[in-house]
Specification:
By secondary structure, the chain is α+β, with helices and mostly antiparallel strands. The chain has 7 helices and 9 strands. The strands form 2 sheets. The protein has a 5-stranded mixed sheet with strand order 1-4-3-6-7. A hairpin with a 2-residue loop joins strand 3 and strand 4. This is DUF4369 domain-containing protein.
């Protein structure tokens, strides 16, 4: 079976391209403030095909407030990153669902990600809700891993087997949670985004079910189109005959 290509790749594998032309007017306004930031550079990125595109760079010198306008066709995940200069902090990036309208981002220099408050985006609110449901399951999985290690160290094999069986159920629960959340939010662009990011390697029937449930507006959006194309690519790839020794000669 040939490997299919995930339409949204991990950030670390992508190239960066800057947009030379900045939009003066647009249907999306992003207002923001980074409390405590006196000097530095903020960057707004999005993923286009397999490339991270820099939409704008914001040089901060004294005033930590900023405002930018862009044109956006449909809701899409954006990334706001902070260049701290000589600092080695890993807390330099936050992601948010951008959509037409006015979005406000308020955060702090000290805790750029964890202190971030994003308002004005319904899709971002929905995605945050999804992350909470996923986090609850992930936290339980981490607890189980610790318990499994303890049981192994104590040579409690029966207890270890029970914990491992429960851990497998939690994995299934995490994927089921993603499917159910996507189906329950079929009128949000978050739905196809979840399918692409968290369910891309699951059985194709789950992706099909989500795709078929989407409203027409979401289907015609950025991630709706990507999901449709991805499902087709997977089906084409998985229907390819497996080469035998005689065929390869």
């Amino acid at each position: 079976m040939k490997q299919y290509i995930l339409p949204i790749l991990f950030l670390g594998t992508m190239l960066f391209i800057s947009c030379d032309k900045k939009e003066v007017n647009g249907n999306l306004t992003i207002n923001g403030k980074v409390e405590g930031l006196k000097q530095g550079v903020l960057y707004l990125h999005k993923i286009q095909d397999t490339t991270i595109v820099t939409l704008d760079s914001i040089v901060v010198k004294g005033d930590s407030n900023f405002s930018r306008q862009f044109n956006i066709d449909s809701p899409e995940m954006y990334y706001l990153t902070l260049d701290r200069g000589s600092s080695n902090s890993m807390d330099n990036e936050l992601m948010f669902f951008a959509e037409p309208g006015t979005i406000t981002i308020e955060t702090t220099l000290k805790k750029f990600y964890s202190d971030a408050k994003v308002t004005g985006s319904k899709n971002n609110d929905i995605y945050k809700e999804y992350l909470k449901t996923r986090s609850a399951i992930t936290d339980r999985q981490n607890e189980l891993i610790i318990d499994i290690i303890k049981a192994e160290n104590q040579n409690a094999l029966h207890q270890k087997d029970s914990l491992m069986a429960l851990s497998k159920k939690m994995v299934a629960r995490k994927y089921l949670n993603a499917v159910n959340f996507a189906l329950n939010h079929k009128n949000s662009d978050v739905s196809p985004y979840i399918a692409l990011m968290d369910l891309y390697d699951r059985q194709i029937k789950y992706l099909d079910t989500i795709n078929n449930s989407l409203t027409l507006e979401v289907k015609n959006g950025h991630y709706g189109k990507l999901l449709e194309a991805f499902i087709k690519e997977r089906k084409d790839s998985e229907n390819q005959p497996i080469a035998t020794d005689n065929q390869s000669e």
